[in-house]
Amino acid sequence: MSNQINGVAEMGSEMDKRAEIDATGRMAGMRVDDSEITGHFDRDGCDGGDGDNNGENNNDNNTSNNANNSNSTQRPLTIVYSTETGNAQDVAERLGRLGERWRWEVRVCEADEFDINTLLTAPIILFVLSTTGNGEHNPTFRSLWRQLLNSRLPSDLLDGLVYGVFGLGDSSYARFNWAAKSLDRRLDSLGAQRVVGRGDGDERHYMGYDGVFLPWSGVLFNNLNHLLPLPKGVDKLDDDYLPPPRVKMEWLNGSGSGSGSKNSSSSNTTNNTNTPPNNPSTPYTCTLDSSTRLTSPSWWQDVRHLVLNTPPTLPPFRAGDVAVLQPRNEPSAISNLVRQLGWEECADELLLLCDRQSSHSDNANHDTQTHTTHLPSPLQRYTHTPTTLRHLLTYHLSPYAVPRTTFFEYLAHFTSSDVERERLREFTSAQGADELYEYCARVRRTAPEVLDDFKSVRIPPRYALDVFPLLRPRKFSIAGSKKSHSHAHASNQLQLCIALVRYKTKLARPRMGICSAWLESLKQGDEVHVGVEEGTIRAPRRVNGHEDADEHADNNLTHTPPLLLVGPGTGVAPMRALVQERERDIHTQPSAQNTALYFGCRCSGMDELYADEMQSLARAGRLHYRVAHSRDDVHGNKEYVQHLLQQDGKRVYNWLVERSGYLFISGSSGQMPKGVRKAVASIIERLEGVDENTAMRKVEYFESIGRIVEECW
């Protein structure tokens, strides 16, 4: 992030400039009527800001003219997003397209590319944020967030900024949309004015995030256009407005129609091997040592223990950290897609990328530095290194994911059938959201399957990066400690516990996850590009009575607090790493034996992961190990990890409350983490003789100070 704030002095100098900013910057005295600021959205007549349909089609020339005409209205709108899975980016870009149709001068950027000083000069900023971990901001937003939390910032710092916040989260988490909520409160405390009440998109809503986004965006643009109306004689662009591609593809020595230079093994271009290319989040090259099935061969689910040999350059990692892997699509599936799209003639032509604000053709030398603000960081190398459409589809795009609303918005532009166009537009309206859910999300229909139903659609190759979402890296908790005494090669290996995703949709078609298919295809010695991030779960240590995270301070270790680990299914991965790390500590401090693991699975002998290892430690007295088998009872009674905690109530209370221990929860989100928190509250209620609300407040307090930590997905 460039031009970051250095204390309050720099901010003060920027604040002095505000009085000089006219309508092209921060508008003096700009306020929004509080009656228009509401978190409860009136759905009647609200269509997400689509407006009236004038029934006119625009070709590319008209599109460019419309965009140029909109620049004269002087209504800048900045949209900042922070994402891990790509959902927040999709919402931000949808907002951007709505803004362009209303002739706002839109700039969309990721938080780590956002100039912090823009907060002090931009008139209107919209934030689109997802939440990660236990109510935390995504890594791309953390630098900005730390600066906003500076206690020395004056309460009127952002007086004059008009803002909106839309959060994307999962209401099964205790800290649902915590990132958006905390940002909303902080901006308000610094004097900024809401243009609309915060929108809390919920993945659990039957319509997904659209259940809130569609009405919220309608209220947003109604308020924005009331705040800064269009000048007289300037109208909103009609519903057929098609923005130019946000990322340009410039074919070398051709036009993308099959006449250009072809990729070959001797070309100075990207590779087409089984290994996805490095990107900023996966910079280290490992090799696959082994991939071992952990579940019984007769069991329906295939859970693998993967061991990767790591290079010396891989940074040290600790128990609780997360490995980042970049998958790729199956090449044969991409070949089928290329044929379906009719892109055979251009799929292997060499091309360069640039954002739509710049053009390589403007420069005689392709090595000239270009403006790449709109290019996602994994694609920025292709501003200078030639690539192909096939390579982008294989390694960087996700055409076989269940498409989002954006996909259908674009298809409506690319069909020659009036009937199909009407149907596609109905899907993207608030009134048609239920039908879109039934047609697409509920049955897990993929983009190629949608194209089978809308046969008149012809997607121009230059819109590939708009139509298909980015193929995002996948994150997995590391399942082994580098410092384990029981594994001789642990210091140069990275271990993972991954369930391969196979399922049948309601269309009765078998599916396998993109990452799962890639992992299953790997052979021993294949390269895997990896990154490592600090996880939410961190092993606590105390040195001389104080918390210490220094792994080199073990000789001074005087106390290791008790650990209660709850990790059913593949949630056992970070817990296994913690258990191994505690095993190492036992050699220097006997109190490290205060570790309990509560594991959950369906059937004994079928899907009890790492059973032999954990049972051996339990027999040796170095681990309190309990397993809940939810399908073993002949009478059909189901036992879960929260039941085991209730049975061990005195131990749980003694370790967590009386001895200041820690409770870590990892696994599938939903009822499990809620059940665990409720079980702990019930134990406190019973043993302390307090009411339910008091007990739950104590659980929430432990969460707030990091003594109860949840990392679920």
UniProtKB/TrEMBL annotation:
Residues 54-72, 260-276 have a biased composition (Low complexity). Residues 77-221 form the Flavodoxin-like domain. Pfam families: FAD_binding_1, Flavodoxin_1, NAD_binding_1. Its cofactor is FMN; FAD. Residues 26-74, 248-289, 360-381, 542-565 are annotated as: Disordered. It comes from the Eukaryota. FAD binds at R444, R474, K475, F476, S477, G513, I514, C515, S516, W713. It catalyses: 2 oxidized [2Fe-2S]-[protein] + NADPH = 2 reduced [2Fe-2S]-[protein] + NADP(+) + H(+). InterPro entries: CysJ-like_FAD-binding, FAD-bd_FR_type, Flavdoxin-like, Flavodoxin/NO_synth, Flavoprot_Pyr_Nucl_cyt_Rdtase, Flavoprotein-like_sf, FNR_nucleotide-bd, NADPH_Cyt_P450_Rdtase_alpha. One of its GO terms (molecular function) is flavin adenine dinucleotide binding. It is found in: Cytoplasm; Mitochondrion. One of its GO terms (cellular component) is cytosol. Residues 281-540 form the FAD-binding FR-type domain. NADP(+) binds at T570, S630, R631, K638, E639, Y640, V641, Q642. Coiled coil: none annotated. The keyword Plastid does not apply. In the C-terminal section; belongs to the flavoprotein pyridine nucleotide cytochrome reductase family. HAMAP family: NDOR1. NADPH-dependent reductase which is a central component of the cytosolic iron-sulfur (Fe-S) protein assembly (CIA) machinery. Transfers electrons from NADPH via its FAD and FMN prosthetic groups to the [2Fe-2S] cluster of DRE2, another key component of the CIA machinery. In turn, this reduced cluster provides electrons for assembly of cytosolic iron-sulfur cluster proteins. Positively controls H(2)O(2)-induced cell death. Interacts with DRE2; as part of the cytosolic iron-sulfur (Fe-S) protein assembly (CIA) machinery. This is NADPH-dependent diflavin oxidoreductase 1. It comes from Wallemia ichthyophaga (strain EXF-994 / CBS 113033).
